[in-house]
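R.M. (postdoc): so does anyone remember the format we settled on? I'll just put the structure tokens first.
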């Protein structure tokens, strides 16, 4: 149920929405404006942003772009990441910290490998694709996960319980 594709966008607006999936957008060419909750970002080539599941966001493309887009459903991640409901994933896509930059570069390389294997699709490509998804999930868990406090989790759960009828 993982959604992966290379997006070529000549101009679009996707209004505020959310997913029950972690979403990663990696800009390869052009620009993309992304609003995550109340924070606005203009992404340029090489920028890679993560949007946690159930977070309201929108995108606007006013300059044509090419991007890798990956959505990993929470239902899938919960099978392999312990206490996923108590974690969020964070990174600063413009960090200057050399260690954090290296970790982010490793993640981008994994996304590029996913793109290549998805585009070429040689015999057995699904094995390689799946192994790269697991590699990326390990990187998310090991390098970018942050534990949230229980009261924050309970508040978020109440919000999602109220939104469930709309989602369904």
């Amino acid at each position: 149920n993982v959604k992966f594709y290379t997006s070529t966008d000549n101009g679009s607006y996707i209004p505020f929405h959310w997913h029950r999936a972690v979403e990663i957008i990696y800009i390869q060419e052009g620009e993309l404006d992304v609003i995550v909750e109340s924070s606005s970002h203009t992404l340029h080539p090489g920028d890679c942003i993560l949007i946690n599941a159930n977070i309201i966001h929108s995108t606007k493309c006013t300059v044509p772009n090419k991007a890798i887009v990956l959505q990993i459903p929470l239902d899938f991640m919960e099978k392999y990441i312990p206490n996923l409901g108590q974690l969020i994933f964070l990174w600063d896509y413009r960090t200057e910290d050399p260690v954090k930059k290296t970790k982010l570069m490793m993640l981008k390389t994994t996304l590029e490998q996913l793109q290549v294997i998805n585009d070429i699709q040689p015999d057995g490509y699904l094995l390689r694709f799946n192994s790269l998804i697991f590699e990326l999930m390990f990187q998310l868990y090991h390098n970018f996960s942050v534990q949230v406090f229980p009261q924050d989790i309970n508040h978020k759960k109440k919000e999602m319980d109220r939104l469930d009828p709309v989602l369904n």
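R.M.: ...and that's the designed sequence above, right after the tokens. Also worth knowing: Residues 91 and 152 are 19 Å apart (CA to CA). The mean pLDDT is 92.
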